[in-house]
Amino acid sequence: MSKLKEYKEISIEEIKEVDEFRTFIPENNMYDKIKEDIAKNGIKVPLIVNQNYELINGYTRLKIAKELGIKKVPVAVYETTDRADEYDLLVSTNLTQRQLSKAQALALIEKAVEEKTKILKKNQNSENNPKEAKVERVPVQLSESQNKKIQSLTDLRNAVKEELKKYNVKVDDRALDYYIRIKENAPWLTDYILKGKLGIYPAYSIYTKLQEMGLLDAVAKLPPYERNTLLTDGRKIILDERKDLLEEIVNHRMAVSQAINKLKTEEKLQRSKKKPRAKEEEENENEDEGEEGETIDREDNESDEEYDLVGEWKKANEEEKEEEAKQQLTPQLNGNAQVVTQSQKEFLQELDRLGSYARIPIQIVNTFNEKGFFEIPDRSIIARVGVRLYVINEDALRDLEQGKSERWKELVNLLSKADLIVPDENGIYTVMWRLLCKCQ
């Protein structure tokens, strides 16, 4: 069992970071506030290190100290016997120093039990294999009353329950059973519990719904940003068992934000069929006020509703006909991103801006005014971003799929607003082709 040896101040150069401890706890979600406080008042809570100055707890404070140029930090030095002992110390200090929910505490304790079990198995295998050097560490203690190898989920459950009791964390048996089941079949979901993004019961509901629809593995393989949005802002898609929308998402034919807006639109249409229009408008106003406090950070005007392209162009034609007839434009047109807005003036200005050196030939303007249409280049893609329609160069989209985005920075910024493209960690974009209209 670990024992406090002393408090002292040491150089940050003496502190040794341990990968398994650094990644064990998610970064504190109050990072900026902590940094501001440390910049003003210094580090008041000592970092936790062992006798070899290996850092057990305090990675956020160490990172901030380095960023602020702090050379020495206060530490609490503990005498520890082995890694398992240090995991116990890591858990106990996090439970006392951080404001964790019961679900987060359970996830933290279970994760520590899992790591200590790995150490126990490794030690036992070494003892049973005379060819391997024995590890000079005492046997792992999962708790004071338990010292046995975990071989089944029942043993895991009992071990976690003992640890919960040791740390005086009260979690009901059903919540514990649900968590163990999630851990067994969807371990990636437990990270959301540990980070405080999901409670145990919501996580279990998501797990069971996805399993029933046969989409558990598919959702696990989504790009991190898309999966995070789905499990937080878009969890109603899962809980309502909208398999149609989920299949569009996992097949990269629809962004999560688009699916969320589609679901909202459908719900509003359903309500409009049942209630008088005036009453529904009043409810929609109330709903909009309530949504201001939600964490969904999306443009309100992004949806999958039908867009009256012909109607908007006709309206623009009537409003700007006289003014546009006077404009003199250079007769050059290239294949860069082009835009169709709600007025001809905006249309031409936006096309000019996004197309760099692009100009709309006067012949096209005249044709548009006289006949109500004009021809667009081959390999053009129409996309909606907010209330505007854009004509996109298909070759540019193909470049993004191959990671060639340097040339198309403005296009990337434009399409990212509506989640029409989703990047991976290597800068290669997934294009949501299902949301685009290809001109052939």
TrEMBL record:
Extract the Pfam families matched here: ParB_N, Ssol_1539-like_2nd
| Coiled-coil ranges per UniProt | 109-170
Q: Which domain of life is it from?
A: Archaea
Q: Which residues fall in a compositionally biased region of kind Acidic residues?
A: 281-308
Q: Where is this region: Disordered?
A: 266-308
Where do the ParB-like N-terminal domain residues begin and end?
8-95
Which InterPro entries does the annotation name? ParB/Sulfiredoxin_sf (IPR036086), ParB_N (IPR003115), Ssol_1539-like_N_2 (IPR054524)
The answer, when asked if Coiled coil is one of the entry's keywords, is: yes
Q: Which UniProt keywords apply?
A: Coiled coil
Q: What name does this protein carry?
A: ParB-like N-terminal domain-containing protein
The protein's organism comes out as Saccharolobus islandicus (strain L.D.8.5 / Lassen #2)
